[in-house]
Amino acid sequence: MNIVKPAALLVAATALLAGSTVAATAAAGPTGGYHPDGTRVTSLQQTADEVLGKDQKALSVSADKVAYDGLDVTKAPQGTFSAQDLACDYGHLCMIVKGTKFDFYKCQTWTVSNWTGDGPFTNNQTPGTVARFYNKDGSERWSSTAYQAGTATWDPIYSLRPC
Question: What CA–CA distance (Å, rounded) separates 71 from 100?
Fold first, then answer.
């Protein structure tokens, strides 16, 4: 299985969102810190930097969204809701893992880490498109054929391929 570099970036992001976001916020201080180039660093910016590593750069970063080639990462809305409430554009595979919304729209294999717990997902890709979720050894754990929405158990997912 060919695992692409952006996938490794999700490992760091998910780890940060699972427990290190507080540390990142504390390090930045209440008003944020600054990159050496003088730009302001927010908690989400720090998370994006960790997600993207040294090889990838975000296409755009704002206070509430990190966008890069094939994936948008945002904080999920507060509260409890079902997969049917999960906004997911046509042609996309969306899910919430540990309070973070992942919106995949590029066909490639993504490596992820620390995906645990349950969360809603919506496979809103073209009808019949199969999203596959994999175990650590690369074997398929489960799949979803578009259109499908529901709740998934992420314990543990190590990689996924939206198409």
Answer: 13
